[in-house]
Amino acid sequence: MGKLIIEARINEYAMRDVNPQVPWTPAEIAADAAACREAGASIAHFHARQDDGRPAHDAETYAEGIRRIKAASDILTHPTLGFVTLDAPPETRVGHVVEMAANPETRPDFAPMDTGSTNIDRYLRDEKRFHTTDLIYRNSTGTLQHFAREIGQVGVKHYLVSWNIGFTRQALALMETGAVPTPAFMLFVLTDGEVLAGHPGTPEGLRAHLDMLPPADGSLHWAACNFGGDLLGVTPMIIERGGHVSIGLGDYHYDEIGRPSNAELVARVADMARAAGREVATPDDVREMLAMG
Ligand code: ZN
């Protein structure tokens, strides 16, 4: 079986109330990403944050994050497209990626495309109520075609994100039409927390994704994360089925195993991979596997 790619999802919009080791500032993000690289990660996914943890959406903070990550290690960079710019036009949502790609010092390696639309209101199960009732993550086909074009034109690698089987079908169609080149990379977002849009973070939830994939022909590499929940439970299955692992404090605090750092989580996955006979991929391996030039 091929080498295992470990991506560190280092912060998303996680706060520090449970696990204080979530990096926020560009300096913290860069130090954390370098530690993850040391532990076996080859990709760092991050969201720009302000000093107090609030989201940052300006291109400068993203650029500063990438500049510092690149200065601290050779880990591949994967900034978000901006979750809370939900209602912004597609040009704005992908704007910082295009801008950063123009400068080699701030050029991201990956840019994400969530290939569908879904409700993302948080459901507070204990209280049997929804926190909000009108949040839609909207990604029209036209928006996705725009993202695909812009990301491709600036030579950044498309990073497909699938929340459920409908997203996967749309992603496969984008590959089939040539909008997204192959070999492609696709993340399955399992959701065990308050967001109900993904499959559960269980073997059954992951298996449903895998059962729908076309026969493996090398044109698609897949990974899984668990937004709002523990990914370690399905990690052996991911490793065994030939997938890749995307894990970090952005998704979950891992309180029950002592609030580890991102690097400690990555090291744990790397150990599991090696024990199962899969080597851990370096950034150069990833470039080669995904034909990133
Ligand atoms: Zn993210």
Description:
This protein has 293 residues and is α/β, with parallel strands linked by helices. The chain has a single domain, classed as Aldolase class I (TIM Barrel, Alpha-Beta Barrel), CATH 3.20.20. The strands form three sheets. It has an eight-stranded parallel sheet with strand order 3-2-1-12-11-10-9-4. Strand 10, helix 6 and strand 11 form a beta-alpha-beta unit. Helix 1 packs parallel to helix 2 and helix 1 packs parallel to helix 8. The radius of gyration is 17 Å and the shape is globular. The relative contact order is 0.18. The mean pLDDT is 96. It binds zinc ion. The site of zinc ion has 4 residues, from loops. Zinc ion binds next to loops.
Please tag this protein with its features.
293 residues, alpha/beta, TIM Barrel, eight-stranded parallel sheet, 9 helices, binds zinc ion
Task: Chart the SSEs and their pairings.
Elements: E1 6-9, H1 26-39, E2 43-46, H2 59-72, E3 76-79, H3 90-101, E4 110-114, E5 118-119, E6 123-124, E7 129-130, E8 136-137, H4 141-153, E9 157-162, H5 165-176, E10 184-191, H6 203-211, E11 220-227, H7 235-240, E12 244-247, H8 262-275, H9 283-289
Parallel strand pairs: 1-2, 1-12, 2-3, 4-9, 9-10, 10-11, 11-12
Antiparallel strand pairs: 5-8, 6-7
* Ligands present: zinc ion
Mean pLDDT: 96
CATH topology: TIM Barrel
Shape annotation? globular
Uncertain runs with pLDDT below 50, 5 residues or more?
none
What is the CATH superfamily? Aldolase class I
